[in-house]
Amino acid sequence: MMKGGPISLATFAANEKELNRLLLYILYLRKCNLRIREKVTFHLAVIRDKGPKKFQIDEERLEKMECGNPMGVLHDLLRDLNKQHVNHWRYKLPYPQNLVRNLARKNCHGKYVFLTDVDIIPSRAMAEKLNQFLDKQRCNGKCAYVVPTYELDERVMFPPNKTDLIRMANKGLARPFHHKVFIYNQYATNFTRWQNYKDPDEQIRISHPVTNFEFLYEPFYIAVDTAPPHDERFVGYGYTRNSQVYEMYVAGYEFFVLSPIFTCHWGLQIKRTRPPWREHQNNQNRKQFDGFKKEIFARYNKDPLNMMSPK
User: Fold this and answer.
1) Fewer CB within a 10 Å sphere, N or C end of the chain?
2) What pLDDT, in 10s, does the model give residues 100-116?
């Protein structure tokens, strides 16, 4: 969690049992963590016409949950759900990522939003430094500020600063997010240029603009909360974030990389560890993209990446 930064968190429950377990865990987190009570709002999505018939919060169990063991409590709750409940969304009911992203955004009340995923961890004091940086910006409203994202070897501690992160990267203990599994995901950020940028102090500055934008780019960014919403026809994995970023680019947004802040995701990912259901969902979403790009062209009457040209 970013100290001092309010968080709008949205998630999805596919059935009554999942929803009741989710509510129990949220109550546990709020009971045990003052920052969560003060800084985090929770927003839940359920299937239309299949909402819960009743809420069952095991208050006795809640009282017994140990505050010092949040991951253990979570694993215990998940153990209560059988394999069908945990895995059904992978094939029969893909997780509605774009719907919950929009839900989280709609419940933000600040001028700017940092659009991120729950497993992406921000660097130290990022919220406070961003407040200072954004107060000085004079943008026309179509600026997106990119926060470089790295994967970390699971054996290492979170780097306290950019210098240590670069040291880890030089030792092979960190690398750009999705570098091995899908390089285009973050490639346009130009991590080499970011690493070579000499920060005069710890204040946030623009390291460089993104000059080689290409489709499939999926940066984690901060922007005024007037950016286009995520298209909810893309469900599960694939084309969920990059389609929204593509529309921003067509609409005239410019992307600027910030330093020395960064975010990290634990685990050096490789292709052979990715389950087959992810590729299945990606293929399903790819079929939706043809109609999406035609709509974007009609909406803005622009095609800067020649997406409408015959392949």
Assistant:
1) C
2) 999 999 998 889 999 99
